[in-house]
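Worked example 3 (structure in, sequence out).
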């Protein structure tokens, strides 16, 4: 079961510093699934992660297009 970003961040912090508490775990009886309610920080984390990935995918394409356009303007513009 994948825990929320907030839970994982709090657990990570509790492993490293003495003053942080471990997050509280909820008892889930067998055969029942926990209702997944996304926190606002989880939604923000997904948006930031998607933006970061899109940045590395789209920026090289845009830069390559700009370089190609400048090259064509220089080469074809002299004729």
């Amino acid at each position: 079961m994948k825990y929320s970003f907030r839970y994982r961040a709090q657990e990570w912090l509790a492993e490293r510093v003495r003053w942080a508490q471990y997050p509280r775990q909820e008892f889930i009886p067998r055969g029942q699934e926990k209702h997944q309610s996304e926190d606002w920080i989880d939604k923000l984390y997904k948006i930031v992660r998607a933006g970061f990935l899109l940045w590395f995918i789209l920026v090289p394409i845009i830069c390559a297009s700009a370089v190609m356009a400048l090259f064509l303007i220089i080469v074809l513009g002299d004729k």
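Notes: Residues 66 and 72 are 10 Å apart (CA to CA). DSSP finds two helices and no strands in the chain.
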